[in-house]
Amino acid sequence: MNDTAFGHVFRRPQLLREALTHRSAVHLRQRRGTHPSLGSNERLEFVGDRVLGLVVAEWLVERFPNEQEGALARRHAHLVARPLLAEISGRLGLADRVAVAPNEARAGVKLLPTVLADTMEAVIGAVYLDGGLEAARTLVRTAWGPAMEAQKQPPQDPKTALQEWLGARGLPLPVYTVISTEGPPHAPQFVITAEGGGKMGSGRAGTKQAAERAAAAELLGRLTP
Asked: CATH for 3-150, among 1.10.1520.10, 3.30.565.10, 1.10.287.3510, 3.40.50.150?
């Protein structure tokens, strides 16, 4: 991976390798004896999710000093949502770098929005653990700059926008389903799907409300390409 894409040179390159290792590739590497101790990027993804949320929150407070919590929350939800994460990940070329099992690669797993988004979070986590918060802040502010500049007004809540889009076309209201709850009680992670208009979106976050918003945003993106 070209380190200049992150504005950071890794002192511990194994962190970057781990960030670019999909769980499907772990057992294959262990069998081959290639980086046998290297795990998947799931742990780094866990860290990166929190770091991204913090960096975006402080950036929004700095950039929009007169906005209230509701408007800031809508901006934040959009900037950390998985569709945007996947878009930025693709722009940085992470799909070409993430290691997956050969059968998964043939199935196009590298290009799945969920895989792209997870890899982006893992890279942020790796940069943070290797270089600290300032290095992670530099990465996020560089990669997310165009998206931040494009936010002239606070985006509409994605759940409201989805409901209005479906309602305007005479379609039923979206259905939200909790798929799983992971993590310890003090730091849960909810995975929720939103279905409507014949398509589905998924979201993951530390609260059900945030996960529903992320799922709605992904579904809306699929309904309005």
From this structure: 1.10.1520.10
Distance CA(182)–CA(206), nearest Å, equals 9
CA distance 85 to 31: 32
Q: Choose among 154, 127, 149: nearest CA to 51.
A: 127
Whole-structure pTM value = 0.71
Catalogue the active-site residues.
49, 121
Residues 6+ apart with CB under 8 A from 24: 100, 101, 104, 109
Over residues 66-110, the pLDDT tens digits come to: 999 988 988 998 899 888 998 999 999 999 999 888 888 888 888
